[in-house]
């Protein structure tokens, strides 16, 4: 069986299980379940701490896993990203009290508190900055208030919690993270079970990003319409019973669907419909 690690808790857990369910895999029904076997798909899922997943995969005990890009890099494990999953997005940045520093170039001799010391230490080394890194778990905003550090490095979403603590974000983002599929570094691409798993997840990503659009238009306006809905390869075009009219079907990006419908209507297309895509293979 293919052995796959899945986050057992945290912000990645729910979306990861939802995506796997959409891809046709059995998932746990209770949070207490640590292992789920899916005999129909010949897969065994292990629910582990997100921070540990890259380490388990790197050891070769598990074939692949789903974790955050930030957790993968921070672990220092011999594992690599093979597919981005487009959820769990976050930005990792430095923050400090106003006037303390303008950017990392001013960090020399300072102490930086973070829960991701591996990422921060590497970033400082790459920038040639001589600063100390102290590891703290949980909220690191209070590290400056208590005098443990002059700077913190943490995940930033809206920045509200930092502003409430009297801090400001400085410098460029250290890292932009999201959920990713990882495998042991150096593993080959010839495992058919892994390739099938990746195809299924890629199918979910496409299904979430596109809708199927159907509409009728006059034959003389077909080229204009096809220019708006080129599809992935080319649209399907069928003649209608009424002479001079054709029916068109094509996949279009979901986020652009409303604009495309407006543009189609302007050139005379009618009966414009969109439907969700639940699964696909490209």
Automatic annotation (TrEMBL):
GO terms for biological process: L-histidine biosynthetic process. Residues 49-203 form the ATP phosphoribosyltransferase catalytic domain. It comes from the Bacteria. SUPFAM superfamilies: GlnB-like, Periplasmic binding protein-like II. It is found in: Cytoplasm. The keyword Transferase applies. Pathway: Amino-acid biosynthesis; L-histidine biosynthesis; L-histidine from 5-phospho-alpha-D-ribose 1-diphosphate: step 1/9. It catalyses: 1-(5-phospho-beta-D-ribosyl)-ATP + diphosphate = 5-phospho-alpha-D-ribose 1-diphosphate + ATP. The keyword Glycoprotein does not apply. GO terms for molecular function: ATP binding; ATP phosphoribosyltransferase activity; magnesium ion binding. Residues 207-278 form the Histidine biosynthesis HisG C-terminal domain. Its cofactor is Mg(2+). Feedback inhibited by histidine. Gene3D superfamilies: 3.30.70.120, Periplasmic binding protein-like II. This is ATP phosphoribosyltransferase. It comes from Streptomyces gardneri. The lineage of its organism: Bacteria, Bacillati, Actinomycetota, Actinomycetes, Kitasatosporales.
């Amino acid at each position: 069986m293919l052995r796959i690690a899945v986050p057992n808790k945290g912000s990645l857990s729910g979306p990861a299980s939802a995506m796997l369910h959409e891809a046709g895999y059995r998932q746990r029904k209770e949070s207490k379940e640590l292992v789920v076997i899916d005999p129909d798909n010949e897969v065994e899922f292990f629910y582990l701490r997100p921070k540990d997943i890259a380490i388990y995969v790197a050891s070769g005990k598990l074939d692949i896993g789903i974790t955050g890009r930030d957790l993968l890099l921070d672990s220092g494990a011999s594992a690599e990203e093979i597919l981005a999953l487009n959820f769990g997005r976050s930005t990792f940045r430095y923050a400090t009290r106003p006037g303390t520093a303008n950017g990392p170039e001013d960090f020399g001799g300072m102490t930086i508190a973070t829960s991701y010391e591996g990422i921060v230490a590497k970033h400082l080394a790459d920038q040639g900055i001589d600063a100390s890194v102290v590891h703290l778990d949980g909220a690191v905003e209070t590290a400056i208030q208590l005098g443990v550090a002059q700077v913190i490095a943490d995940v930033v979403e809206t920045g509200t919690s930092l502003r409430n603590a009297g801090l400001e974000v400085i410098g460029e983002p250290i890292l932009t993270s999201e959920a990713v599929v990882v495998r042991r570094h150096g593993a080959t691409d010839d495992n058919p079970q892994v390739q099938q798993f990746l195809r299924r997840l890629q199918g979910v990503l496409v299904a979430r990003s596109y809708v199927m659009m159907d509409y009728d238009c006059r034959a003389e306006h077909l080229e204009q319409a096809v220019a708006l809905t080129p599809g992935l390869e080319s649209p399907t075009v069928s003649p209608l019973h009424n002479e001079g009219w054709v029916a068109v079907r094509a996949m279009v990006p979901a986020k652009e669907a409303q604009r495309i419908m407006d543009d189609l209507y302007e050139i005379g297309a009618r009966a414009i419909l969109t439907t969700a895509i639940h699964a696909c293979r490209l």
